[in-house]
Amino acid sequence: MHVTTRLTHAAGVIAALLLGFGSLALAAEPDQKAAQPKPAESARSGAEIVARVNGVDIRMDELRRAQKIIMSGRPGLQIPPEKQKEFDQQALTQVVSAELIYQAGQKLPVKDLDKQVDDRMAQHRARFASAEDFAKAIKGMDMDEKELREFTRRDLVVANFIEQSIAAKITVSEADSKAFYDQNSDKFVNSASVRASHILCGVDAKATAEERKNAREKAQKLRKELAAGADFAALAKENSTCPSSKQGGDLGYFGKGQMVPPFEQAAFALKPGEISDVVETQFGYHVIKLTDKKDAETVAFKDARPRIEEYLKNQKIQAAVNAYLAEARKGAAVELLLK
User: Fold this and answer.
1) Triad 34, 37, 40: Cα angle to 5°
2) Which is nearest to 46 in space by CA: 125, 135, 144, 133?
3) SS3 category, 51
4) pTM, entire model
5) 86-111 confidence digits (pLDDT tens)
6) Residue 107 belongs to what domain range?
7) Structurally, how many domains does the chain consist of?
8) How many degrees, rounded to 5, is the angle at CA 255 between CA 250 and CA 258?
9) CB–CB of 56/103 below 8 Å?
10) CA dihedral 104, 109, 111, 114 (to 10 degrees)
11) Structure confidence by residue, pLDDT tens digits, 8-58
């Protein structure tokens, strides 16, 4: 697996730990639906107080919102009935943690906070095709636009606190980065990959034998035209049923395991510039042209270092936030009232 894929999985501290709006915004995309908490929970009053942090009440609707954000980051997650109370308590712990850091963050100045809120709100709106879609997404997270604005303000205050009080003090030495690089050599190998274009004569899964025969014959005819010197990209734009036809059939680079086996085997067997015979897959009949091939290689430390430093710094920030919260709880008046 490519090193950039392996290391960019380091979770953002604020979004993961403190329910930052980055998680919420992703969940609110029109083609994604946040999983809902157990229906029985929705019967409880949103105004019910579930915790109190230094005299500040945390309501049931805030807990529900936190649950939605947590679940939106884990598509397909289902909470078994016997685990619902445990999940509720975990979500409540995160809400309390967010409130503790927010209270601390209010003591620090945030430069141009109102402008930052305006800019962030504009970014949220830009994610959606219309104002109606935006309003629907907000409603889906149990908020109105005023509440979203306040949520965004809180998020910025929290982020400012973590940056000034924690992240700014954390560094990662070259020695630490090199040690990580040496101890995780398998993470810094780019596997072999190829770049290919194709022309697809698509066939529906329910196609008749005659329809499949016609598609195969068309692919064979196109293959002959290419052998006679026809332009691959032009034929792809005119004939391919794959969306890649708009790019002249170009599929970009891909490694092993990313395409269906017959296609992958044919592509990797070619040399740059070569064109395959007709290849059959469940999608239809393909003619493939290989445009480039890259052998497996190890990423040099100097190239991997910036991403390693980011990964290790995130880990240190996460640990520092956890340590801060553990200490803050000792001096805070925290009441957990959820039954």
Assistant:
1) 145
2) 144
3) strand
4) 0.65
5) 999 988 999 999 999 999 999 999 99
6) 3-174+305-336
7) 2
8) 80
9) yes
10) 70
11) 332 333 444 454 434 344 334 434 333 333 433 444 566 799 999 999 999
Instruction: Give the tens place of pLDDT for each residue, 209-240.
Output: 999 999 999 999 999 999 999 999 999 999 99
Helix residue ranges per DSSP H, the chain: 3-7, 13-18, 21-27, 39-42, 60-72, 84-105, 113-126, 131-140, 145-165, 174-183, 209-227, 232-239, 261-269, 301-331
**40 and 98, same domain (yes or no):** yes
Token digits for 92?
A: 């409540």
Tokens of 119: 């800019």
Would you list the DSSP string of 316-329?
Answer: HHHHHHHHHHHHHH
Same domain, 21 and 148: yes
Q: Which two tokens stand for residue 239?
A: 């004939």
Token pair 């609110």 in the structure block, residue: 28
Cα angle for residues 285, 294, 9 (degrees, 5° grid): 95
